[in-house]
Amino acid sequence: MKKIAVFASGVGTNLQAIIDAIESGDLDAKIELLVCDQEGAFCIKRALKANIPTFVFTAKHYESKAAYEQDILQQLQEFNIEYIVLAGYMRLIGHTLLHAYQGKMVNIHPSLLPAFPGKDAIGQAFTARVKRSGVTIHFVDEGMDTGPIIAQQEVDLDDNETLESFEEKIHAVEHKLYPAVLQRLFSEGKTSV
Ligand code: GAR
Asked: Is the CB of 87 under 6 A from ligand 1?
């Protein structure tokens, strides 16, 4: 069973999907730690409810990215974390964590990368009126939503689609795809594509 840390910044519906997949036996992993950079974010409540320890930090209280990542790294080592799973963590990962978890850190992004990286990818695709967008899961590198792609799933943007219905479709795909891809990744032990 893989020991993982989930990093999140917001509501944490992907965190919840991973918690649920572990509880139902579909994902052979244990979330040892939630790392969150936003005090009061709803993902913290989800973790506490599932008895997952949390490390919540405020980036501006540190003098550099290296300084807060060093604190995070210490936590990860205390919990013997094998994989970092980014689930709506809205910060670029720096050298400290990349160096320690090369090939052992994955991210989910709500578009077919390399299209629409960064914030509000669903809104970006909707505004561009593309025929289809989707979800990407990839290994993390120093870029924003870059890194070798592990899996992608397309989601159609229908003619009568509203932003809300499109968001719902994308999130529904995320919540199934992420646990399934993590399970495959952990069982195969792949660190590159
Ligand atoms: C998810 O849609 C995730 O793909 C996206 O943030 C959302 C978090 O939702 N991540 C990115 O945009 C990364 N660039 P959640 O907090 O409900 O899981």
From this structure: yes
